[in-house]
């Protein structure tokens, strides 16, 4: 139904298209883009965490994933580092 | 307790200067001491909109750099004696403003006035950040149009991170002023509605200023719309917005002109 509604609505209701486009765009920009304080913080965290890890292990930059989920109550910072296989043995010695 | 208010938007041409002049005048007309400060260095226009362009001798930069005293640069409005303007410089560039100098001038203004209203330049660069840095409150001027809403969202992010309040772990009190609104087009779903913009930006609504020829007519003659056409729809919207800024709880309504039957018959869409 919503598919049909969209087809018929598109011609008259350009405002709802505008609203949808904005909501998608801003959801993306708020979490990743721009010069907002939060993204500055994330960039800084990313850099410093990488420096600490690099001091001990050689890690490929591409194998690190950092994600932030902004919730209403709190935000989650998720850091996923892929460590090379041979290291798990070496570390214990 | 004096308040520093920044009028900002990110995007240019949405009505920052018009709104600064109109809100400043409306607050001053209610008897409060108001100064409007133009931060748009190099592209000053607040003096022109306020009709004070031929009375500018010293400007914000002269005061910031210590070349003039604040009292020498302030221009008192001829129509409303509780309203003053501190103009920006037209010739110097924005790097002439130092953060320390601006801080000193803002402190001095706080002592003299109930309201210090800063007209921000467009953009998100240094000039805009200096204008918002000392603010207790912010009016975000937004048009019901995609690029303006997007830029307002960006500015809200900056207000939450690059202001003195934010650095102290507090929040700037943010208000949305929707300008150039056309209720008829919004009703036909050709324009983002008030509800749409509020849902996207999620900050409280200060007022809805309708698109109106009275705004241009007022700036043509160099007067805030609240002084030049006090009974017009935009002026009424600004008066109500000013009362809300002063703390009154007033319902925000979509401004519509009351028309007679014949007007309605012949000028439906006018």
Automatic annotation (TrEMBL), chain A:
The keyword Cell cycle applies. SUPFAM superfamilies: Cell division protein MinE topological specificity domain. Transmembrane segments: none annotated. One of its GO terms (biological process) is regulation of division septum assembly. Gene3D superfamilies: Cell division topological specificity factor MinE. Pfam families: MinE (PF03776). Keywords: Cell cycle, Cell division. Prevents the cell division inhibition by proteins MinC and MinD at internal division sites while permitting inhibition at polar sites. This ensures cell division at the proper site by restricting the formation of a division septum at the midpoint of the long axis of the cell. Belongs to the MinE family. This is Cell division topological specificity factor.
From TrEMBL, chain B:
Transmembrane segments: none annotated. GO terms for cellular component: cytoplasmic side of plasma membrane; cytosol. GO terms for biological process: division septum assembly; negative regulation of cell division. Residues 5-225 form the CobQ/CobB/MinD/ParA nucleotide binding domain. It comes from the Bacteria. Gene3D superfamilies: P-loop containing nucleotide triphosphate hydrolases. It holds the Pfam family CbiA. One of its GO terms (molecular function) is ATP hydrolysis activity. ATP binds at residues 11-18. Keywords: ATP-binding, Cell cycle, Cell division, Nucleotide-binding, Septation. Belongs to the ParA family. MinD subfamily. ATPase required for the correct placement of the division site. Cell division inhibitors MinC and MinD act in concert to form an inhibitor capable of blocking formation of the polar Z ring septums. Rapidly oscillates between the poles of the cell to destabilize FtsZ filaments that have formed before they mature into polar Z rings. NCBIfam families: minD_bact. Interacts with MinC and FtsZ. This is Septum site-determining protein MinD. It comes from Gluconobacter albidus.
């Amino acid at each position: 139904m919503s598919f049909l509604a969209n087809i018929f609505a598109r011609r008259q209701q350009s405002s709802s298209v505008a609203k949808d486009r904005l909501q998608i765009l801003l959801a993306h920009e708020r979490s990743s883009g721009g010069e907002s304080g939060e993204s500055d913080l994330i960039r800084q965290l990313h850099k410093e965490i990488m420096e600490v890890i690099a001091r001990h292990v050689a890690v490929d930059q591409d194998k690190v994933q950092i994600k932030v989920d902004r919730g209403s109550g709190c935000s989650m910072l998720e850091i996923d580092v892929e460590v090379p296989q041979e290291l798990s043995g070496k570390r214990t010695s | 307790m004096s308040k520093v208010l920044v009028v900002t938007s990110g995007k240019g041409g949405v009505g920052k200067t018009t709104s600064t002049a109109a809100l400043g005048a409306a607050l001053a007309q209610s008897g409060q001491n108001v100064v409007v400060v133009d931060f748009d260095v190099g592209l000053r226009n607040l003096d022109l909109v306020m009709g004070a362009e031929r009375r500018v001798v010293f400007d914000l930069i002269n005061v910031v750099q210590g070349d003039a005293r604040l009292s020498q640069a302030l221009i008192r409005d001829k129509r409303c004696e509780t309203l003053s303007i501190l103009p920006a410089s037209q010739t110097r560039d924005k790097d002439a403003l130092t953060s320390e100098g601006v801080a000193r001038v803002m402190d001095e203004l706080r002592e003299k006035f109930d309201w210090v209203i800063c007209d921000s330049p467009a953009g998100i660069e240094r000039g805009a950040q200096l204008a918002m840095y000392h603010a207790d409150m912010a009016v975000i001027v937004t048009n019901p149009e995609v690029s303006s809403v997007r830029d307002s969202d960006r500015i809200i992010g900056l207000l939450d991170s690059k202001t003195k309040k934010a650095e102290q772990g507090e929040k700037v009190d943010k208000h949305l002023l929707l300008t150039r609104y056309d209720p008829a087009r919004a009703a036909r779903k050709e324009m983002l509605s008030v509800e749409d913009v509020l849902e996207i930006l999620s900050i409280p609504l200060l007022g809805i200023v309708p698109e109106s020829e009275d705004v241009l007519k007022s700036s043509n003659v160099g007067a805030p719309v609240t002084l030049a056409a006090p009974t017009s729809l935009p002026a009424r919207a600004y008066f109500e917005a000013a009362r809300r800024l002063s703390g009154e709880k007033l319902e925000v309504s979509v401004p519509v002109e009351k028309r007679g039957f014949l007007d309605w018959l012949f000028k439906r869409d006018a």
